[in-house]
Amino acid sequence: xxxxxxxxxxxxxxxxxxxxxxxxxxxxxxxxxxxxxxxxxxxxxxxxxxxxxxxxxxxxxxxxxxxxxxxxxxxxxxxxxxxxxxxxxxxxxxxxxxxxxxxxxxxxxxxxxxxxxxxxxxxxxxxxxxxxxxxxxxxxxxxxxxxxxxxxxxxxxxxxxxxxxxxxxxxxxxxxxxxxxxxxxxxxxxxxxxxxxxxxxxxxxxxxxxxxxxxxxxxxxxxxxxxxxxxxxxxxxxxxxxxxxxxxxxx
Length: 251
Prior knowledge:
Strand order of the largest sheet: 3-4-2-1-12-11
Pfam families: Exo_endo_phos
Protein name: Endonuclease/exonuclease/phosphatase family protein
Strand content: 25-35%
CATH superfamily: Endonuclease/exonuclease/phosphatase
GO molecular function: endonuclease activity; exonuclease activity
Distance between the termini: 15 Å
Number of domains: 1
InterPro entries: Endo/exonu/phosph_ase_sf, Endo/exonuclease/phosphatase, GPI-anchor_lipid_remodeler
CATH architecture: 4-Layer Sandwich
Radius of gyration: 17 Å
CATH topology: Deoxyribonuclease I, Chain A
Number of helices: 7
Oligomer: single chain
Largest sheet: 6 strands, mixed
Helix content: 10-25%
Order of helices and strands: EHEHHEEEEEHEHEHEEHE
Keywords: Endonuclease, Exonuclease, Hydrolase, Nuclease
C-alpha cells in the first residue's frame, strides 16, 4: 500500500535579518540554517521586503528582498504579504514553497494605531496528484485584546476561503504566551497544534537563547498524521529572537 504524501514545514520569525539584540546582521547564516532543514514549505514572519537605509549602510545586505534571498533556487515559488510600510522600507510575512503556489492573498489584521500584522493565505498544488493544500502564515499582535480580534479574523478567513475537506496548515508567530489560541482554533476551525498533540504543550520558542514563552505554532487540519521535528539549538539560538519550529505532516 502506497504511503500518503508528506510535507515538511518550517516556521521562523526572521527578526528582519538581525540577531536578537539587533547588533549583528545574520541573514546569510539564517539562510544556511533554513536550507539545512530542507522544508517543503517555509513560513517567515518579520521578513524584510525593502530597506533603503540598511541597503546603503549594512555590509552584505542583499539586493533582493530577504524572502527572495532566502528562497534562492531551493524554493522556486514564494509569496510575500507586506504588513508594515514606513518611509525607508517594508516588512511582513512570506511563504516559500517547493510546490506551485496557484493563488495567494494577504489580509491586514492590524489594529489602528498599533503593530502592523497580517495573515498570508496561499493555495498550493501538489505535483503528484494535483491536490490543493492551503497554508496561512500568521503574525499576531502583542496585546491579548488585539490577538483575540485577530483570531476572529483568522477564523473568518478560513471559513470563507478554505474548503471544509482541504488540507490546511496554519503556522507562524502567534505571540500567544497564555495559550488562548488553542481552544479558539480547535472549536472554531477544527485545527490541532502539532506540538500540543505530541507533547501536551506547545513548544517554548522565546527568547531563542533561553526559551520560556510558547509563542510560535504549527496548526493542521484534514491531515493523516503529523510529528514535530527536532532542531538543534545552534545555530538557531543566535539567528533571531524566536526559535524556529518544524514538523512532518502526512496528507
